[in-house]
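ok so i was messing around last nite and threw this chain in just to see what happens. nothing serious, just curious
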Amino acid sequence: MVWLLHLVVQAVTFCVFALLTHHPDFREERWRKIVWSQFLVLSLSAAIFGQINDPRLFVAASLGAFGLLAITWAGNLAQWAAHHQVNFFYRDLHSITGLRPDFKFAHNHRRDGELDEAIKATKEELQKDPKNFEGLLMLAQMNLDLNKPTEAVEYIGIILNNHAATESQMELARNEMANCKRLIDLQAVEALNKRSNK
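result:
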């Protein structure tokens, strides 16, 4: 019967640890932490379920396991608490990132090479502020990365037509527009070469 209790505790704590590291920002050394923590939980459950009879060893094992678990997960718990506290003050009913555009998920997906997910996350955030410079520039750059300059031009055009944009933002947008036009010209030349070679 004791082995079944151990199994339940291991399963429950594994799910908790997996949830604590589910967010992309929390995945650094995820599995090493989880495996190490499962060993600590096993030690702790052995003490709690009476498999350690010596009182001094019981106290040492319990406090040691609790302490090491706290040290291991302090950063994740702090980030999780801060994340939910911020969402409490800036949330709406449909977005986990609040009322203001927040492109951190998009940046994470882009960093990991997940451009489709990054574009999707950016578009979701832009619904809160369709003229947001950061989001529009990111969409343009990601479409350039995907060799889609025509789509990139669309987002840069929104920046260039926004009278609230600063001069430095307009300059960046003009530079990106020049990159788009170069890529469009290059694609046109490649298409002509392919036709002439047939």
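not much to say yet. The two ends are 76 Å apart (CA to CA).
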